Amino acid sequence: MSEKNLIDDAFFIKQQKWGTWDSFDKDGKPLITSLTEDTCIEATRFYLKGRQEGFSESKSYEGEVGGKL
């Protein structure tokens, strides 16, 4: 890979020839693929923050079917 411009001193992004954007950590390990550059940066920041602080394990799903069939 050519010159890496680190974002937040944690990752860099690269546009692929088919138009998507990929983010990579400092070692070149792939992290996120997005359709736009801005989305790739935002999603990678969110993902790295979750890895650093831990992802929430709480899940809250509720489903209800009402009415007559």
Topology:
Elements: E1 11-15, E2 21-25, E3 30-34, H1 37-53
Antiparallel strand pairs: 1-2, 2-3
Key terms:
single chain; 69 residues; 25% helix
Report on the architecture of this protein.
The radius of gyration is 18 Å and the shape is elongated. The chain has a three-stranded antiparallel sheet with strand order 1-2-3. The longest helix is centred in the middle third of the chain and has 17 residues, at 37-53. A hairpin with a 5-residue loop joins strand 1 (11-15) and strand 2. With 69 residues, the protein is of the alpha+beta class. Helices cover 25% and strands 22% of the residues.
Overall outline:
elongated
Radius of gyration (CA) equals 18 Å
Number of E-state strands:
3
Oligomeric assembly: single chain
Secondary-structure class: alpha+beta
Share in helix: 10-25%
The main pleated sheet reads as:
3 strands, antiparallel
Query: In DSSP terms, counting alpha (H) and pi (I) runs of 4 or more, how many helices?
Result: 1
Q: Flag low-confidence runs.
A: none
What fraction of residues sit in β-strands? 15-25%
Mean pLDDT: 87
Q: Strand order within the widest sheet?
A: 1-2-3
Could you provide a short overview of the structure?
With 69 residues, this protein is an alpha+beta fold.
